[in-house]
Fold this sequence. Notes:
The structure holds 2 protein chains of 2 kinds. Chain A is built from no helices and 11 strands. Chain A is mainly beta. Chain A is globular and about 40 Å long. Helix content of chain B is 0%, strand content 53%. In chain B, strands 2, 5, 6, 10, 11 and 12 form a 6-stranded mixed sheet that branches. A 4-stranded antiparallel sheet of chain B has the order 3-9-8-7, with no helix packed on it. A two-stranded antiparallel ribbon of chain B has the order 1-4. Chain B is globular. Chain B has no helices and 12 strands. By secondary structure, chain B is mostly beta strands. The interface between A and B is medium-sized, with 19 and 24 residues.
Amino acid sequence: xxxxxxxxxxxxxxxxxxxxxxxxxxxxxxxxxxxxxxxxxxxxxxxxxxxxxxxxxxxxxxxxxxxxxxxxxxxxxxxxxxxxxxxxxxxxxxxxxxxxxxxxxxxxxxxxxx
Amino acid sequence: xxxxxxxxxxxxxxxxxxxxxxxxxxxxxxxxxxxxxxxxxxxxxxxxxxxxxxxxxxxxxxxxxxxxxxxxxxxxxxxxxxxxxxxxxxxxxxxxxxxxxxxxxxxxxxxxxxxx
Lengths: 114, 116
């Protein structure tokens, strides 16, 4: 298996633009997580899905952020409009379930908003 | 609220020496504890977990961790460090969110630097 795939790996955009981050989880994993990593705040859970259904979105910072999972093999995290404080590395992770508690992380998308 | 603390931003150790990366936890009930490692420009990788059982847990790449209930600690250890162990290490704990669902809460990370 190729592991969790994220695209793009790097994104540079101007303030006010829409940004869409993409994730393909490991096949057969029922859980998908979106995290954000910054120097100031560390690694934060934004939202997670179980069987394509959002379970906990309490970490989504504000209405500018939205996430979808239209099917078991694809998820998006959208920021509209983007702001400089959104600059971070965004990770997608997938997991076979809470029985193992192991999460498999993608390589991340480094977002820079100027 | 459930949380973990990693008191050291960085740990320096010479290759071949034993290493310890510290983690303390604060949870109500029985803790579920984890260690992850992050190499440069990569996502986090699972190393090991403690859920129940033996207090000494063995994981990937020769790492182990010792669960100590009285000290509320879960320190990561390795008997002999390698230069390739240099990375960012995260301790994590299972927590319950406001919505009633479980999640992992990560510490701030400790950078391990192993010198040749």
